[in-house]
Predict the structure of ParA family protein.
Amino acid sequence: MKTIAVLSHKGGSGKTTVAVNLAIAWRALGARTVLADADPVRSASDSLRKRADHMSLVVETSAAKLDALAYVSGKGGCDVLIIDTSGGPDNGMIEAMKVADLCIAVSRPTYLDVAATLRTVDIVRRLGRQGMVLFNQCPPRRNGVESAVVSGTMDILRRGGLEVCPLALQTRAAYQRAIAQGQGVTEYEPGGKADAEIGGLLAYVQGKTAGAARDRAAND
Ligand SMILES: Nc1ncnc2c1ncn2[C@@H]1O[C@H](COP(=O)(O)OP(=O)(O)OP(=O)(O)O)[C@@H](O)[C@H]1O
Ligand SMILES: [Mg+2]
């Protein structure tokens, strides 16, 4: 099983949006995917309970139970466990990091978000976990080139010592409309720009976690 934690020190960066979209896109490929909603606000659950498959897709949990949930999910045949955490430093972020094969730190491309993300990066590194930074809610690219604000903040975070995903998610109405309907953008607008972004992100995350199941098996 691959376990991915989506986290950030700053609220509203897009953790739930990323977790929900990754879970739905990964499941559509045939992987037995579960989204662990570890945020007491239950935003992921609020969106996903509209779905016919919500009983098998989402589990409401807490930081304290993540270790046990990951163990039971792995034994129960789950292929992918995606953890949505709440914003802020005392939010169970460390518990999520400890069970994750990959930590995705979601950041908006603003000064205050980047400052907070550097703290997230620091904890991921100190715990010795594999991680990456994902930029979300970015302004549009011009002729395929990221805006100066996005490329500048990417550079700052690269110097923080964690890989930065070269794919940044842009601000798009499709993300908001899809989640309001309990859908991923891959379902809401197949062939659209947000669909392409999530497809690219999924491929990237799959590449980063390709060895995870093999490593786990070797350690068992
Ligand atoms: N790429 C995007 N384009 C447009 N809107 C977005 C995008 N990403 C997130 N949003 C919107 O921004 C708001 C915050 O997103 P979301 O709830 O996913 O963030 P979060 O990090 O989970 O927040 P919290 O810290 O409160 O859990 C939501 O209204 C969401 O629909
Ligand atoms: Mg959230």
Q: What stands out?
A: The chain has a mean pLDDT of 93.
